[in-house]
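Example complex used in Figure S2.
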Amino acid sequence: GENVEQHPSTLSVQEGDSAVIKCTYSDSASNYFPWYKQELGKRPQLIIDIRSNVGEKKDQRIAVTLNKTAKHFSLHITETQPEDSAVYFCAASAASLSQGGSEKLVFGKGTKLTVNP
Amino acid sequence: NAGVTQTPKFRILKIGQSMTLQCAQDMNHNYMYWYRQDPGMGLKLIYYSVGAGITDKGEVPNGYNVSRSTTEDFPLRLELAAPSQTSVYFCASSYSWGNTEAFFGQGTRLTVV
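Predicted assembly (230 residues):
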């Protein structure tokens, strides 16, 4: 089955700096890679996702890159703000059983990001 | 639009007691999931369902049971609660196989004493 590793487990940056969180996955059939943000005491919410036919995707201050050959993907947050402080989860899954792989969305263990004012 | 609704939000159980965590979604999603989140840890899949009448085990199914009699509801049953089941439980749903956004409920914080 799929295994997703996420690093680092904690990350502290100064406001205005960039933050990068990296994930690796094991199942070559995986082709959907979402990122979720979970604020303290709240539910996880999708912030950006990428599919395997795309190498990079941007949405304002956040971007995700994907390297299918190396089986890793990363979240980049630029010009960080205190409200970016949260736990971020990466995840991976396959598009369909007919392509092999698991339909289950498998999450990394999360990265606690702290943005210091 | 309510999205995914979980009840209760908090519960304290004694060892050996049983309870059902309720989950309902109003987005007509076929796919529903139960995750548990231990302190400082990620989300571990307990059970999932790809449609009414169909359920399957995730990573950590022991001690839990589920049913899916309707598209909207996906209750999680804890039998003989143990301290190891102290966790935050999240229900989620998505439109299709895990390649679209998963919408999460607000979570149930369960403590077994």
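Residues 29 and 98 of chain A are 10 Å apart (CA to CA). Chain A touches chain B at residues 6, 31-32, 34, 42-46, 49, 51, 89, 91, 93-97, 103-110 (CB under 8 Å).
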